[in-house]
């Protein structure tokens, strides 16, 4: 059996071997994820009152609860999604409790650091090529599961689990040149195909290699918010 590392990103992070997300009546192998308290957001450079959207216990994918972690509030997140970490291991993560624009960064050194961290750690969302929405994070627009850049000290340097959403797209060179077709064939053999019929990308190294060869572009929303919210928790 392959070793799998289960990450609960942003709200609770724990590495496990052979972990399986438990059923409702069984004891979970990690603390059920909750949103952060306002004070913890402010301590780490964000003003939660300026978030674009934020989960509350009244939302369909949340409920009221109590966490053992004193940095969390009473919003228990019920929705759990699956994806990949930087080295292609399976991870599970709670639905993002908030997304936000530039104005949510505090106007001080803590805010500057939060912005730096949020831009360093990227969450890769893969839009469908024929969907006409290259910068849309909507689940129906995705051709495969998300990939998270959990490298560069994620566990120690990113206490809020901040992410800059990034949208990889294959270039014409990838699908129309012999070199590109050969590179994609290798990935297809390794990872299989996505909903577009193009190779699934499971590792940060694969994204970097394709980008360096001109076979992949990494699109991001403008920081001024003109394309929609650029960051999520």
How many discrete domains? 1
Question: What value does the average pLDDT take?
Answer: 89
Number of helices: 6
Number-wise, the strands total 12
User: What is the element string, with H for helices and E for strands?
Assistant: EHEEEEEEHEEHEHHHEE
Structural class: alpha+beta
List low-pLDDT spans: 1-30
Mind describing the biggest β-sheet? 9 strands, mixed
Helix content: 10-25%
The 3D shape can be described as: globular
Q: Provide the gyration radius in Å.
A: 18 Å
The fraction of residues assigned to DSSP E strands is 15-25%
Q: Report, as a whole number of angstroms, the end-to-end distance.
A: 33 Å
Structural commentary:
Strands 2, 5, 6, 7, 8, 9, 10, 11 and 12 form a nine-stranded mixed sheet that branches. Strands 1-4-3 form a three-stranded antiparallel sheet. With 233 residues, it is α+β, with helices and mostly antiparallel strands. It has helices at 38-43, 109-120, 154-157, 172-176, 178-191, 204-212; strands spanning 34-36, 53-54, 62-64, 72-77, 80-84, 90-94, 98-100, 122-124, 146-148, 163-170, 216-220, 231-232. Residues 1-30 have low confidence and may be disordered. Helices cover 21% and strands 21% of the residues. It has six helices and twelve strands. The protein starts with 33 loop residues before the first strand and ends with a strand. The longest helix is centred in the C-terminal third of the chain and has 14 residues, at 178-191. It has one domain.
């Amino acid at each position: 059996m392959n070793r799998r590392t289960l990450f609960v990103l942003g709200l609770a992070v724990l590495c496990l071997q052979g972990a399986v997300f438990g059923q409702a009546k069984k004891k979970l192998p990690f603390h059920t994820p909750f949103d952060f308290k306002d004070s913890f957001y402010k301590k780490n450079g964000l003003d939660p009152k300026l978030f674009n959207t934020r989960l509350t216990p009244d939302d369909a994918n949340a409920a009221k609860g109590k966490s053992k972690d004193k940095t969390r509030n009473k919003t228990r997140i019920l929705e759990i999604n699956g994806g990949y970490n930087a080295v292609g291991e399976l991870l599970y993560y709670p639905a993002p409790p908030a997304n936000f624009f530039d104005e949510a960064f505090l106007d001080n050194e803590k805010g500057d650091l939060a912005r730096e961290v949020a831009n360093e750690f990227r969450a890769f969302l893969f839009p469908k090529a024929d969907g006409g929405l290259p910068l849309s994070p909507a689940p129906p627009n995705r051709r495969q599961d998300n990939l998270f850049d959990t490298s560069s000290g994620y566990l120690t340097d990113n206490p809020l689990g901040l992410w800059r959403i990034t949208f990889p797209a294959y270039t014409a060179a990838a699908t129309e040149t012999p070199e590109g077709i050969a590179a994609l064939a290798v990935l297809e053999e390794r990872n299989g195909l996505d909903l577009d019929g193009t190779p699934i990308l499971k590792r940060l190294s694969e994204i970097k290699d394709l980008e360096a060869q001109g076979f992949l572009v990494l699109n991001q929303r403008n920081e001024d918010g003109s394309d929609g919210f650029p960051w999520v928790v």
